[in-house]
Amino acid sequence: GDSVTQMEGPVTLSEEAFLTINCTYTATGYPSLFWYVQYPGEGLQLLLKATKADDKGSNKGFEATYRKETTSFHLEKGSVQVSDSAVYFCALSDRDRGSTLGRLYFGRGTQLTVWP
Amino acid sequence: EAQVTQNPRYLITVTGKKLTVTCSQNMNHEYMSWYRQDPGLGLRQIYYSMNVEVTDKGDVPEGYKVSRKEKRNFPLILESPSPNQTSLYFCASSPAMTVNIQYFGAGTRLSVL
After folding, report:
1. Chain B contact for A59, CB < 8 A?
2. A39-80 confidence digits (pLDDT tens)
3. Is A107 on the interface with B (CB under 8 A)?
4. Cα B42 to Cα A106: distance, rounded to the nearest angstrom
């Protein structure tokens, strides 16, 4: 079935460091891919998305490119800030699944802590 | 302000005592869903609803009930809570045409003793 695998956390970085959080997926159709972010004490919110191969999603300095050949959607940011400390979830939505059309499948989440 | 509101935010209860967690959205969304979040397991879907009076099971529905009598409300009911239902619960909603872009409530932390 459809699934998402994220790198294990936690990830701890100093401010201005480069961030990569790996995400790979398994899907039978043509999925859309997402990154959601959960700040402390809050619900999840959409960070960025890509709906087809080679699309690049971007928001708040974060980027992720939909790579069909490697079934990956890695999250990157060139210079992290303390305010980026949060849990990041990779998610998949397979558009070809009938009654589950558009349903989200989440990875396990990666905790990011950024120190000043 | 567009939002998904869950109540209560924190709840401690005892095994077997029925409880309801409420969820309400003010965005006129057709789709609503309940998730539980557990360490190392991420988010798992409990139930979802595509519209009023239409509900379906997610990945982990055992021990839970839901109802969708009105478009804005989607309560989660635990008829006889057990300690393995101790978790962080999230309600989410979205328009029917974009159910993969969901808006989440702030969460309800439930402890069952």
Report:
1. no
2. 998 889 999 999 889 999 999 999 999 999 999 999 999 999
3. yes
4. 7
